[in-house]
Specification:
278 residues, mainly alpha, Methane Monooxygenase Hydroxylase, Chain G, domain 1
Length: 278
């Protein structure tokens, strides 16, 4: 009989009475104690974990986007590119998560849906923060967060500063014009709408790639990010339709109809519209 392998004989630490363990570092005792389904329905655990992990990935996305904006304003282009690429991969991860949730059938969800009350992903302040950082700044969407002082303060502070895309536009004008004199005013508290002057300058970049390679690469990273973001929204719509059809959302939205409307939102419209002009 072969003896069981013992990693300790090769130097692996096996006792943690005097050292920080994996569980200690990640605070797993706290994290793994936060899943408390209200019903006794088997599939509610999946629903809880799906949304909790989504919020954790969104926390990382906000962390990366905030740092990317700081890197942009500091002129640290390589790190900004790295962070933007990471956000795209985060949304790729979130897209894959819908495949797990779609294993839950309408009959499964119906058994515990009433336990959600009026709670809804529509009320996620982190999702709202991601939209606000990127430039989709609908002030009407502040209302679900008014009763949560900390979230409300964070979102209002974001609306008071330039979005990431506004900072990109400033860089675009500085690079092509040599200054920001003709730069359109930032769209601080309204969803970003396409501006002809911005699109014209992006067209110049795409028609002179070698001259403006850094801007061109930045533009493509933004398109890549929005591509994954759109796919996440689309997967959200199809998952909801597959599970509840056209019922109203638990938070009172029109459900699928509301989510389909969100598919029309463009974060960086000039970068998409110019493609037809090239």
């Amino acid at each position: 009989m072969t003896d069981a392998y013992d990693p300790g004989t090769e130097g692996a630490k096996m006792s943690f009475d005097d050292a920080m363990s994996y569980s200690d570092y990640l605070r797993l005792g706290i994290i793994l104690d936060q899943q408390h389904p209200i019903s006794d329905v088997h599939d509610e655990m999946l629903f809880v974990i799906q949304h909790q992990t989504t919020e954790l990935w969104m926390k990382l996305a906000i962390h990366e986007l905030a740092a990317a904006r700081d890197a942009l304003t500091a002129g640290d282009t390589p790190n900004m590119f790295k962070m933007l690429a990471r956000v795209s991969r985060i949304f790729e991860q979130l897209n894959g998560a819908w495949d797990v949730l779609r294993t839950m059938t309408p009959a499964d969800y119906t058994r515990f849906r009433d336990t959600l009350g009026k709670s809804s992903g529509f009320q996620s302040h982190q999702y709202r923060m991601i939209e606000y950082i990127l430039g989709n700044r609908n002030p009407n969407m502040m209302r679900p967060h008014e009763t949560v002082p900390e979230a409300n303060a964070i979102l209002r502070a974001e609306l008071a500063r330039l979005s990431f895309y506004d900072e990109v536009v400033r860089l675009l004008f500085r690079t092509l014009d040599g200054n920001e004199d003709n730069c359109p005013p930032p769209q601080l508290d309204t969803p970003h709408r396409a501006v002809p002057e911005i699109q014209a300058r992006w067209k110049t970049v795409y028609e002179n790639i070698e001259t403006y390679w850094t801007l061109y690469e930045l533009a493509e990273k933004l398109v890549d990010l929005e591509d994954y973001f759109r796919r996440w929204r689309f997967n959200h719509v199809t998952t909801v339709e597959r599970v509840i059809g056209f019922k109203r959302g638990t938070g009172g939205t029109s459900g699928v109809a509301y989510l389909r409307r969100m598919l029309d939102v463009e974060l960086f419209p000039e970068l998409w519209h110019l493609r037809g002009d090239l």
